[in-house]
Hints:
The structure is a single chain. With 287 residues, this protein is of the alpha+beta class. The chain has helices at 2-25, 84-87, 143-146, 151-154, 228-235, and strands at 45-53, 56-68, 71-80, 90-101, 104-116, 119-127, 133-138, 166-167, 177-182, 187-201, 208-222, 239-246, 251-261, 264-275. A hairpin with a 5-residue loop joins strand 6 and strand 7. The protein is globular.
Amino acid sequence: MYRATYERKRTGRSLTLAFALAAAIxxxxxxxxxxxxxxxxxxxxxxxxxxxxxxxIVAEGxxxxxxxxxxxxxxxxxxxxGLPKKFWDAKWTMTSEGRVDGEKLHPSSFAFTSTENDETKxxxxxxxxxxxxxxxxxxxxxxxxxxxxxxFERKGTLDPVSTFLVPVVNEGSPCNRKLxxxxxxxxxxxxxxxxxxxxxxxxxxxxxxxxxxCKVRVTPRAGMEKAKLxxxxxxxxxxxxxxxxVGSGKFYFPVRVQMRTPIGGAVLDVVRLRPLGVNTAAADIxx
Length: 287
């Protein structure tokens, strides 16, 4: 009985970290597909996506983006699905707000709520003008967890949801950049390098068209030393992300992510797109 409970918790922790990194590397906020009018992207987009690990569905969720001038609001909702949901009912909601300045993003807040088997935890990051996040946790973290990263490691970082938005100026490339990420507990870098131009069709024809394929290296910095996934990421360089342009091409969004985890290969695919209207762009994602 005890061993079975321990194995479920260990599997749950592996899935949580795998989902968190898959979501940070890229999620279901797509480019304007042929079935979506280009002008709809000015108000925002809502996309559904699925996550498969080892060929089995393990999670599904939605991503909403609202862009108004230089301000952005992104909301990602993800929940366990398929077989894992039978023994590990989990749901995560992440919301990020901030502004865009050229090719740089400046988050102002990041809110994260997780509910796993009826246990709810909340996390809030608020950023000052210097890019330093202030942390708030409910329930509070242990001293060891709070001290897993140092202040200088957190300054100038992006929250995981802000990494969905890839601004490009002067007809540049969405690849060939480093994204410093801090989610409140873990600090890591995402290094993107150009691989090639692809024509892809995601699961259920969620997106079909041209996309830029980038190689991604995840470099752990702090707060991840004990995770088995950390060793996997350090040993491999086969994480791929497909980015497609939105509207005028100044922004790119991920439409597919492939990565390796300790429990199998993970694929995150866009499965459905629809534009947001003026009255729904700021609304929360419905359950």
